Structures are given as structure tokens and as C-alpha cells.
DNA sequence: CAACTGTATGCTGTAGGCGGTCTACGAGAA
DNA sequence: TTCTCGTAGACCGCCTACAGCATACAGTTG
């Protein structure tokens, strides 16, 4: 059925292909990782994926490189690709970096806030609250990402926004269970944050964002202790080199 | 002659190739960009580079993707690769992000400083000062990178270290002229910074690093106003799509 | 003279194939 | 029984080839 999915996109291959195949493959593989069909530590054989998605190995290779660049898979030259298996320590550090970037973004967003921008943020808050009320966790997580992205954009620093977005995407991997637990609190904090940005209060915006992300972080760590991410079954066909360097 | 360079690496292709060709290509291309042989905005035709380096298009493509991931080239699907042309604004934002990451690194390095780590930093400072005394700008810049990398590593946060290193590498592109101007001052600040880290004085270390990187930033901006980076001559064979999106 | 259209060329994106290395596994020796 | 070695299979990295789109240019028309 995955084959079908991509094949349908390729159903009109001779007419026009505005989007390179590698990006479709990228998203398809990312989806498989996020949904857990491809488990952390698992070896990803190019031929296998190529057959699964109904394309040749070339787009698979390129998509794997893109995934590697964003930290989703590890490339071991001569040994192929493996789904990245984040340790608790690494997740913790990632969340710490996220706090740093998002806090700075919030500060700058408050400094450069515009009525138009604030209105967009408020709209996202409303949608997020609605999603929480409806117990739609997936939507809540998605809108959460949108809101944070909007704030980083509002900061006016594109480099910062891009970096924060990248880090946030990785965080999203293990974000869902946390959202389930503290969805309502999280969105209340979001609302306060937007108020601070609207008031152009840099320090308060930064402080709220710092507490907000730190809160998420500790929640995540508790969660993680309770339910470690399931790893790939041992019989991974190809072993990683002993020195993962 | 470039062909020779890579060909020599491939001179023993049948025995063992511990390092994939794409990484050699990556470094070769990066060198060409840094030295200005490939100018900002220039279109990079795969076949051309393949011929130049004496390899096929495949490793070239993969190297270009790696370069794209680190912000050295822009990939426009269907239109090929272009050497990234940083605007003054973007460079400014990049340097601001660098300040943020490096400041946090310095703070954490002070918090987690070890005698062993401090000793490494001092050794680098000594080498840096020696390079400045000898008017060896290139060495000074290189050792500067090493020092900053060592500090980020000492922070204990690998994610932060990786991000900071990536940002710093990009900064290095336009760093050299600055180093020429304020080499001595820069290394004096480094020494103070290491002292603060050795004393485990988080706040002081952070403050020194902040000032240090801000200083570099303003120096760079002055420099840039005076000598804009030379761009590719207009007759770039292939135009970028109008909406660079 | 300007704008448009048809044609030619170059380049990208993808497929398929080859050589070499790594892993796994079974047979033989200590 | 355990360790070593040889063999077979699988997979990766790279090369070559092809199809389709984008661009540039020349000819044509208003």
C-alpha cells in the first residue's frame, strides 16, 4: 500500500514532476519512522526500501542522506543506514538546546511583534485550545509546532528560525505522549506567552517560554523513564561498526 | 590538477576505500568555495564538477546534498545547485545565533570544567597567541575554531556542540579578514575566557563570550560594508527560479 | 520593431548494472 | 567442544544510460 501511495504520485510520471521523488521518499520514510514501523537501531537496506516504495535505489539514497542531515538516521559508510536511536541523555540535551533557541526566539518576537503577527498567534492558540477540548492529541501536537514555528518566524531572525524548526521537528518524535498528559496546561502557557509578545515584554516572554519548554522537558523525561522507546529487535541483519565514532 | 588530487586518492581503489568518495568530493568542493574558485551565486553543473574532479555525477550529487545541509549551497529542485550567496542580513543573523550558542556553551563549560579540559584550552590559547605573534592569520583562524570547538565540547552537551560547530564553520567563511584586523585583542579575550572557565565562574564566562562574539560580529559588519563579497559574474549559465521560495 | 512561438541543446532526476566488501554460516582442525 | 578458516550470499558505493524538463535562440507574425 505504500507502494501504491508513491506509485499514485508517480502515476503521471511522464507529464510533470514538479517535486523530486526524493522528497516524497523523504516524507514517506520519516512517516514510517515516526509511526514506529521502522524502529530505532534498525538497519535500512536500500534495495528493500526501494522495493517497498516502488522506486529505484537512487532516490532512496538521497532521501536517506537528507534524513541523516536532520538526525533521523545514522549513515555508517560501507554499512548503510540505521534508524537513529536517541538515548535519554541525547533527548535531554536536545530539549535543552530547544529551550535555548525558543527562549531567544520568544524574546526577539516580543521585540519585533506586530499586530498582524500577534493576530496569527492568537488564531493558532484558539485552534490549539479547540483541539485540546476535543481531545485531539495529534492535532494539538501539530498546532503546537505551528505556533512555535510562527513565533520563531516573528523573531525576524531566519537563521534562528530555521535552526529552531529543525530542532523542534526532532523533538516532535517523542512529544506526543507528553502532550497527552499536559495538553491543557501547555495551551494556557501558550496564551500567556502570546500576551507577553503582544505587550512587547521581552523579558516576560522569554521567561514564560523558558519555563514552558523546561516544563515540557521534565515531563518528557519522566515519561521516558516510564516507557522507554521500543528499539529494533536484536536480529538486525547488519551490525553497526563497533566504533560508531 | 584537481583531477589529480582526487585521482590519487582513488589510485588504490581496488584495495580498500575506508572513506566514501562523496566525502572527499565534499571537502574538495568546500575548498573551492572557501578559496573563491566557486563564487557565490554560481551555478554548479554536476557534469562539469564530475569532469573537473574525475568522478561520476553520483558522488557529486551526494556531496552537493551534504553541502546543502550545511548551508554552503542552495539546491533548487529541477534547476540544480548554486553556491550560497549570503546577504549581509543573513550573515548578521548567523553571527547572532553564533553568539547565542557559544555563550551558552561557555556557561556550561564553566559549570562542567575539569582540570584536564582547562589544560587543553590553555594549550590552544598558547598556540593561538604564537600564531598571532608570527602574523600567521590562517593558523590563527584555524586555532580559533579549534578553541571554540573545544569549549563547546567541554559544555557536555553534544547536540549543542554539534550545532555550534556547524554554525561556526559557516561563519569561518567570512572570518579571515576580521581575524587579520583584531587578532591580538581576540586572543587576549580568549585567555580571559579560559580563566573564567577554569574558575568555574559561569556568569563571567558567559559574559566574556558574549562580548567576544559580539565584538567579532560588529567587526565583521564593518568589514563587510567596506568589502562586499564578490559575487559570480552575471552570465551565470542557468538562472535561479524567480521564486527562490 | 516588438512579442510570440517552434526548435535545439544542456542539464537534472531516475533507473539499472557492476565490482568489491562485509556479514553470516558451515566444515575442518586443535 | 571450541576455535579457525573458507565459502556463499547480501549489500553498498559508484558508474553508465536514458527520459523529461528548462532554457536559449532563431524565425515568424502582428
TrEMBL record, chains A, B:
CDD domains: WHTH_GntR (cd07377)
InterPro entries: GntR_C (IPR011711), TF_FadR/GntR_C (IPR008920), Tscrpt_reg_HTH_GntR (IPR000524), WH-like_DNA-bd_sf (IPR036388), WH_DNA-bd_sf (IPR036390)
Residue stretches making up the HTH gntR-type domain: 19-86
Any one Gene Ontology molecular-function term assigned to this protein's record: DNA-binding transcription factor activity
Domain of life: Bacteria
Keywords of this entry: DNA-binding, Transcription, Transcription regulation
Protein name as catalogued: Transcriptional regulator
Originating organism: Planotetraspora kaengkrachanensis
